[in-house]
Amino acid sequence: MATPNFLFGLAKKCFTVGLINLTVSDRYVSLIAIRGSSMSPTFNPHEKKSAAFFMDDYALVEKFCLEKYKFSSGDVVVFRSPSNHKQKNVKRITALPGDWVNISSSHDVVMIPEGHCWVEGDNPACSMDSRSFGPIPLGLVCGRVTHVLWPPHRVGKVDRKVTAERFSF
Amino acid sequence: MRAQFFQFTQRWKSTAKEAMDHTILFAKFLCLLHVTNNYLCSPTLVYGPSMLPTLNLTGDVLLVEKMSHLLGMVGPGDVVLVRSPENPRKTITKRIVGMEGDKVTFLVDPNHSDRSHSLVVPKGHVWIQGDNIYASKDSRHLGPIPYGLILGKVFCRVWPPEGFGLLEQ
């Protein structure tokens, strides 16, 4: 029979595990499930209609980069969507403050302001990124994706990829 | 000889166990500290002229509560701590003037002209302004701020002692 003492001990254990879990996932590393095909060649490479949760990619997110907010272009980052703070997106940084970005739709060239970055999905066909909402503040970034963990045949590092069509002065 | 060796290992084992227990306790304490700091409330030092009648120029210690922005319970009139969009390592303290969908009217440059401008705050953003509109760098220069940059709501002043108390809206 469960005694009050036992229940108290169990609650205490759960609380401690929760605390440690929260701290580690806030400060060091966490896991994220990647939905959708906006990062298609890197994550979720094949089209699939049956969206089951075990078909998604799971990736490791490191949070050490948040201490200094130092990123380099080509990093895959997790950030809060600027239009909905509850939603997190995974995209690739393609330009950092001071870089110039060529917007293909309007043939404009814009400079990224101080403290912002330009994020784009690897699959330009279906990606909601800086091409629609403009540069985002670096403060919205909440981690850098370093490794793919789940589909066992694709476990490995996420490599930094720089698209060559960008130019900077 | 053998008994001595046995005694020695026994003693060493108990010391190691004690050290381990202390380390775990300390780690748990740090985790508790992190969670309290990030999800309950934390002290912050703010200074500068931008919130002048409410907060002092020389520096106030404020208690910032970190729950209501996660639950979406901040509204116009609240003083909030925001990660600066220009430099993610800095935070700024301002007052919310409008939430998403609100229409805000503001003086563009109160020092030189009384030209005013009004706009509708886009989805997922807030409009923040300092109480001292003559010396404040806020949404009038930075534009609407994404809600995801809000770090907490200021609710109480701790230092200086004569200003101790809850902040009025």
From TrEMBL, chain A:
Main subcellular location: mitochondrion
PROSITE patterns: SPASE_I_2
GO terms under biological process: protein processing involved in protein targeting to mitochondrion; signal peptide processing
GO cellular component: mitochondrial inner membrane peptidase complex
Top-level lineage group: Eukaryota
Keywords, in A-Z order: Hydrolase, Membrane, Mitochondrion, Mitochondrion inner membrane, Protease, Transmembrane, Transmembrane helix
Domain Peptidase S26: from-to ranges: 11-104, 111-150
Bilayer topology: Single-pass membrane protein
Locations listed in the record: Mitochondrion inner membrane
GO terms assigned for molecular function: serine-type endopeptidase activity
Active-site residues from the entry: S38, K91
SUPFAM superfamilies to which the protein is assigned, alphabetical: LexA/Signal peptidase
Pfam families in alphabetical order: Peptidase_S26
InterPro entries: IMP2, LexA/Signal_pep-like_sf, Pept_S26A_signal_pept_1, Pept_S26A_signal_pept_1_Lys-AS, Peptidase_S26
UniProt record similarity statement: Belongs to the peptidase S26 family. IMP2 subfamily.
Name by which UniProt lists this protein: Mitochondrial inner membrane protease subunit 2
Annotated organism of origin: Olea europaea subsp. europaea
UniProt lineage: Eukaryota, Viridiplantae, Streptophyta, Embryophyta, Tracheophyta
Automatic annotation (TrEMBL), chain B:
Compartments it resides in: Mitochondrion inner membrane
Record Pfam families: Peptidase_S26 (PF10502)
Any one GO MF annotation of this record: serine-type endopeptidase activity
GO CC annotation, single: mitochondrial inner membrane peptidase complex
CDD domains to which the protein is assigned, alphabetical: S26_SPase_I (cd06530)
Chief localization: mitochondrion
Domain Peptidase S26: 25-106, 118-159
Stored InterPro entries: LexA/Signal_pep-like_sf (IPR036286), Mito_IMP1_subunit (IPR052064), Pept_S26A_signal_pept_1 (IPR000223), Peptidase_S26 (IPR019533)
Active site residues per record: S50, K94
Matches recorded under NCBIfam families: sigpep_I_bact (TIGR02227)
Primary role: Catalyzes the removal of transit peptides required for the targeting of proteins from the mitochondrial matrix, across the inner membrane, into the inter-membrane space.
Family, per entry: Belongs to the peptidase S26 family. IMP1 subfamily.
Record's protein name: Mitochondrial inner membrane protease subunit 1
Species per Swiss-Prot/TrEMBL record: Olea europaea subsp. europaea
